[in-house]
Description:
- This protein has about 110 residues and is mainly beta.
- The chain is about 15% helix and about 35% strand.
- It contains 2 helices and 8 strands.
- It has helices at about 30-35, 70-75; strands at about 15-20, 25, 40-45, 50-55, 60, 65-70, 85-90, 95-100.
- The chain has an 8-stranded antiparallel sheet.
- The longest helix is centred in the N-terminal third of the chain and has 7 residues, at about 30-35.
- The protein is globular and about 55 Å long.
Amino acid sequence: MAFIEYNPTRGGLRPKSAKLTKTHLILSPDLHEKIGENNISIAYDPDDKILKLTPVKSGGLKVTDGKLQSKGFVNFFDIDKKGLFDAEWDENEGAIFIKLGQSNGKYQA
């Protein structure tokens, strides 16, 4: 008999991706590991539609199991996109950049 093992991923996320839902921003496990801190600061470039997540020692938003509450910053920045997006870790800036310009998954609104 040949067995295939099932290894679930967080929210079905592939590496280097993030999912933005109505209430949460969910990071893929590899990005959550890279950011390292439990608190992050969020900045948004409305022209290029890119979120920047930077680890901070205190303040910012709390990351729990790779998730953070998104409702506040989505309303503040007037972001109307939801779905699965490409994201990458920039070693030089020590930040995650999430490209909201185009959704890259089945779930989008």
